[in-house]
């Protein structure tokens, strides 16, 4: 059985998109996904692939770690 450690990825896609004065559809077209993908990502309900994360960071000309942050769940040694 696969154990869920509660790890996640938080993001600042919304903040970068708004600062760039873009709609979700604008960003989606630029990075090759649907508007729905951007919507659920901004809500924190979708973790993008590494490739998509890098596309978004590259589009905004920032490091991927400026937009996406790993949030550690429970410590694996505590399980």
From TrEMBL:
Gene3D superfamilies: lambda repressor-like DNA-binding domains. Keywords: DNA-binding. This is Cro/Cl family transcriptional regulator. The keyword DNA-binding applies. InterPro entries: Cro/C1-type_HTH, Lambda_DNA-bd_dom_sf. One of its GO terms (molecular function) is DNA binding. Residues 13-67 form the HTH cro/C1-type domain.
